[in-house]
Specification:
Layout lengths: L6 E4 L3 H12 L4 E4 L3 H9 L7 E4 L2 H6 L6 E4 L5 H10 L8 E4 L5 H12 L4 E8 L1 H7 L2 E5 L2 H14 L2 E2 L2 E2 L9 H31 L3 H11 L7 H9 L24 H12 L4 H13 L2 H10 L11 H33 L6 H7 L10 H11 L10 H24 L4 H13 L6 H12 L21
Helix pairs in contact: 1-6, 8-11, 8-12, 8-14, 9-10, 11-12, 12-18, 14-17, 14-18, 15-16
Amino acid sequence: MAQQFDFAMIGLGVMGRNLLLNMADHGFAVVGFDKDATKTNALEGGATPGTIVKGVNTLEEMVSLLSKPRKIIMLVPAGKPVDDVLQSLQPLLEKDDVIIDGGNSHYTDTARRIESEKSFGFHFMGMGISGGEEGARRGPSIMPGGDAGAYKNIQPVLEAIAAKDGTEPCVAYMGKGAAGHYVKMVHNGIEYAIMQILGEVYDILKRGKGFTNPQLHEIFDGWNKGDLKSYLIEITAAIFLQKDEDSDADLVDKILDVAGSKGTGKWTSQSAMDLGTAIPVIDAAVSMRSISGLKKDRVKAAGLYTLPSHEIATDVETVKQQMHDALFSAIVICYAQGLAMLQKASVELDMQIPLQDAVKVWRQGCIIRSAMLGIFYNVCNANPGISNILLDEAIAAMINEKVKGLRSIVGAATEAGIPSMALSNALNYFDAFTSEKLPLNLTQAQRDFFGAHTYQRIDKEGIFHSHWNAAE
């Protein structure tokens, strides 16, 4: 009888191959499919001796080798390739088989596929995976959503291969429908935002105060040993020491200032607008990547306008302390926006996302892992329905202590003409969120004036419309 394999992988790029080898290292018999024989050979060649790993080049052979109910992960490019694979699989599978899309699919596509696959009796799940190729091999953060019963079938293998926070696996059921891909999308939006914040911190310190790359390494490395400890700060510190192979220069100084993207940040902003949720730090990160692409226009514009000197007069030690506090505050506010979005989506889109579990699975293995997440987990665990973590007293105490630094840095950067869109948006969100009264009463008056959109009053209940005096 043919070997009965526990799990299959469709798509043996770096992520797919590493994830499958991770499963094999934990005692599961795995089979990988790819049309490219060099990739299936690489899969088998990379297996740890004694593990059960097989590469195949047809879906028919892959399906025939799997134990029932079959469990299959796809790691193929988002969009049409996912639909094409599903169409090819449909005649080969049976009722109760589980198909998992582990790529960065848009959550709306995942929701559609969940419904379409029900007619075949299959369980289709969307699953976010974070951690890059090293995480896939050694332990990623995993965000599965969809059919709760199907999750139980795959839970043992996912818990085995996930990153561990202590002994706790960084995987949990993220909720109904497309919740897995939704949580991953917001994770990526937060990732965009923190990267933009770090870029602005770098720019202000380098252009504003003239710090060298070795000095920047020392600063970021120091931050990573304290309350700002995180993966993104860790790798940022390392980047400043990397030398260019073709010259004596630091590599970071040789890289063109045009950033790419794969769309998940944009999706996060679009979905937040649909929900009526404000995530301006993430929006700023998406916008700045778009502006970065206007390189020729930026070069031309720099020559057209009289610009500030970019120098910041504040003394070095004060700037370093202010920048620490600004970075801390902005990152907390960034997470607050992302988590508030998840909480709103959980209700509005009926995904039933357990917010504390989303935070829990981010604590290790993923790109946005951070010491702060332990604090956020405690907050969400104690207050599962909290609409925004900025409403927690412990969070408020931390921000009250540090937001003055954010205010000082944004002011200094603005005066020096150094763009700080993410830092500024973090501060403005904070100021708006903590304002008991906003000037939107005027906005409602204007809307009622020109469009009879009505308004509410502060002194009595009801919906009102006025006949305004004509504008002269």
